[in-house]
Amino acid sequence: MVSNRFLRSLANLPATAVAATSVLIAGGKCGYSPGHGLFVCEGSPLAQQGGTTVGDVFLTNEISKDEVLDGTANSEALLSHETRHAAQWAGHGNLLYPILYGVEALKSTVLTGSYGCANWFEFDAGMQEGRYSSC
Ligand SMILES: [Zn+2]
Prior knowledge:
Elements: H1 4-26, E1 29-33, E2 38-42, E3 51-54, E4 57-60, H2 65-69, H3 76-92, H4 96-112, H5 120-125
Parallel strand pairs: 2-4
Antiparallel strand pairs: 1-2, 3-4
Helix pairs in contact: 1-3
Bound molecules: zinc ion (ZN).
C-alpha cells in the first residue's frame, strides 16, 4: 500500500529538488524529521521571514535546523504547521501553489499589513502553530 506521505513526496519532488539545490549552492545544511517526512535546512536564500516550506523542505531563517530538529526551539507545533504547507504544495501542485500562495500573501498584506494574517494557507496550516501571534 502506498502511503499518503510517499504520494506527497512524489508530488513535491520538483519543488523539493529546487529547495535542496538552493541549500546546496548556498553551502547550507539539512537534517530530516522522520516524524514529519520533512527536510529541515538552513542557509537557503529562498527562506523568508521565520522560514519557508518549499515542497518537502522547511527552509529555516531565524532559527537553526538543529534547534528545529532537536526541539530546543519548541518546534513540534511549527513542524506540524510546515508539514501542512508541504501537503498544500502536493495538493495544489508545484506551479499553482506558489502562485496561489502569492495571491493570498498579497491580499493579506493589503488587508492587514502582514503577508500571513489574512492568508488562507496560513490559516489552514494553523496560525498559532505558525507563530502568527501578532495577528
Ligand atoms: Zn506558514
